[in-house]
Specification:
The complex is a heterodimer of chains A (248) and B (279). Chain A has helices spanning 3-32, 40-49, 51-85, 88-102, 105-116, 121-144, 148-156, 161-195, 204-213, 217-245. Chain A is mainly alpha-helical and 248 residues long. In chain A, helix 3 runs antiparallel to helix 4 (88-102) and helix 3 packs across helix 9 (204-213). Chain A is flat and about 70 Å long. Chain B has one domain (17-273): 3-Layer(aba) Sandwich (Rossmann fold), CATH 3.40.50. The radius of gyration of chain B is 19 Å and the shape is globular. The longest helix of chain B is centred in the last third of the chain and has 18 residues, at 189-206. In chain B, 45% of the residues are buried. Classes of the chains: A mainly alpha (248), B alpha/beta (279). The A-B interface holds A 147, 149-150, 152-160, 163, 167-168, 171, 174, 246-248 and B 69-71, 87, 90-91, 93, 95-97, 99-101, 103-107, 116-117, 119-121, 123-124, 153-155, 169, 173, 179.
């Protein structure tokens, strides 16, 4: 076997092995302490028997997460562009963004339900707030991460701020924007799920809470696994788009 | 005449046909103390001349070049680029700047990089300045032996080729004045030799006015019509040396005793004007 092939199989084998060990540990706990974890086959069976239940709830959660990601990430990007061009804004925006970042989303969730009612809006807002900060920081860093000598070339021909933004800052920032998007979309999913713990009967978060009430361990862990896998897929999708866009 | 100056101003001082650098001073504050980066710099450059600013680090050669480009402003004195201030010349895209690194945009092909001046500051193209003659990009790439790499990304090219592409970008812009800030400093010696000859070759054809910064006496002697030898603390032009070697210059020239005499004259002039940093 060639060295490269052996390296590849090792890279595939190592995580699989760790998964196998974790699964074995899980099964041991599920078998001996029935109230802590359900057997994995019970979780798999629950998902296989009623995929519609899981996918229906998942679509509610993902829709809220994507809407929040678009809103929070979009506002963060626009703010980052503004901060890059008007430096005095940085001292105003950064502390507020930090404050927003350290405020626990579970804490604002009830307040949002009071304000906006029992609909998707509070969940979208929580997802947006969660997505905002990682995108803001990455966009601010990325838009400033330009080759200073390339900037001199632009300056030597009196390039406008618009020229510099579109032709230099924006393309330079793309790798940072995609890093930010990966973090933001993860945060938006977490925000969306956590906000669904309250004030709704729909979504993955609600499915987890309802399962808790009925001590339905299989449904609880089914929902958790589905949310984790779907978040991974979303991150993979961002990575795929990055590979199509950032080709240099 | 109301005022009598000590010496009458030469005609060149009012001419729009030269680059006139008059009494340029640059002082900046470092840890509360004023530092004289440039002291009373006087320089006149004729149209089509290749002039090199040569000197050790700290002599202000790059600062002077940046002032000519309008990237920095002098503390006092004046700079006229064929009758325009550096800011006016920059607004009309009449300055081609070639930096130390190639500073190519990694997401653009070599051809698109060479065409950068087309997509930036488009306002200057509505009524293009008569002195700026846009050059055909494919022709310049051919002159720089980059035709086969026109569609390649900068990351696919060697360091020397990237630098050639940066020079091509400067020539395509077609500005009457090219400013080069140690463009070969980051290259290895063999690559440097070859890119220098490429530059000479293309320059012979375009005959742009060039102000070139280097700390290599060999480079200065090979490329220039005149060399301004600069010394530090305070940064000033210690002497001007004419390089009256025949053109077009080739690799063979570098082996002649005349070339070595010029190179040694440049080095000797620097030594005489500057005793080094030792106390």
């Amino acid at each position: 076997m060639s060295l490269a092939l052996r390296g590849l199989s090792l890279r595939l084998l190592a995580p699989l092995l760790l998964f196998a060990v974790l699964a074995a540990g899980w099964q041991w706990v599920a078998f001996n302490l029935k109230s802590i974890l359900p057997p994995l086959e019970a979780v798999a069976a629950d998902i296989a028997v009623r995929p519609g239940f899981y996918l229906g709830n998942l679509s509610v959660t993902v829709e809220a997460a994507l809407a929040g990601f678009a809103a929070g990430g979009g506002i963060a990007f626009v703010l980052a562009v503004a901060v890059i061009h008007f430096r005095f804004l940085r001292s105003a925006v950064v502390p507020v963004a930090l404050l927003l970042n350290v405020t626990p989303v579970v804490a604002i969730s009830p307040a949002l339900i009071v304000a906006f009612g029992f609909n998707a809006v509070p969940h979208i807002i929580v997802a947006a707030v969660s997505a905002f900060f990682p995108m803001l920081i990455n966009a601010m860093t990325g838009l400033d991460a330009i080759d200073p000598q390339a900037l001199e070339v632009f300056d030597s021909m009196s390039a406008s701020r618009m020229d510099i933004l579109w032709r230099l800052r924006l393309p330079s920032s793309l790798p940072y924007l995609f890093s930010g998007a990966r973090l933001s979309i993860t945060a938006a999913m977490v925000g969306s799920i956590v906000s669904e713990f309250m004030g709704t009967a729909h979504g993955i978060g609600a499915a987890i809470v309802i399962a808790t009430t009925y001590l339905n361990l299989s449904q609880m862990w089914g929902a958790i696994f589905i949310s984790a896998v779907s978040t991974l897929l979303l991150i993979g999708l961002v990575g795929l788009i990055e590979r199509l866009v950032v080709r240099w | 005449m109301h005022e009598l100056s000590e010496r009458p101003a030469p005609l060149a001082e009012t001419s729009d046909d030269v680059i006139a650098i008059r009494h340029v001073e640059k002082t900046f504050q470092q840890a509360g103390n004023p530092v004289h980066a440039l002291s009373d710099v006087e320089l006149t450059i004729e149209r089509g001349e290749f002039v090199t600013l040569f000197g050790p680090s700290g002599c202000g050669k790059s600062t002077l070049l940046r002032i000519i480009a309008g990237l920095e402003t002098q503390t006092s004195g004046s700079v006229s680029l064929f009758g325009q201030t550096p800011a006016e010349a920059s607004r009309r895209k009449n300055i081609s700047w070639v930096p130390q690194s190639s500073a190519l945009l990694p997401w653009l092909s070599i051809r698109d990089n060479a065409l950068l001046s087309d997509v930036v500051n488009r306002g200057a193209d509505r009524a293009p300045h008569p002195e700026r003659v846009h050059q055909d990009v494919d022709l310049v790439l051919e002159e720089m032996r980059l035709t086969d790499f026109a569609a390649a990304l900068p990351s696919q090219l060697s360091g020397g080729m990237r630098q050639r592409a940066a020079i091509a970008r400067g020539f395509v812009q077609g500005a009457p004045l090219m400013l080069m800030d140690e463009p070969f400093a980051a290259l290895d010696e063999l690559t440097r030799d070859s890119v220098r000859l490429h530059l000479l070759d293309v320059w012979e054809r375009h005959r742009k006015t060039v102000v070139f910064v280097t700390h290599s006496a060999e480079e200065a002697a090979l490329l220039s019509d005149r060399v301004a030898v600069m010394t530090p603390r305070p940064g000033r032009i210690a002497a001007m040396i004419d390089i009256d070697l025949p053109r077009p210059r080739t690799a063979d020239l570098a082996e002649t005793p005349e070339f070595h005499a010029k190179m040694n004259e440049i080095k000797r002039t620097l030594r005489e004007g500057w005793k080094g940093d030792e106390p």
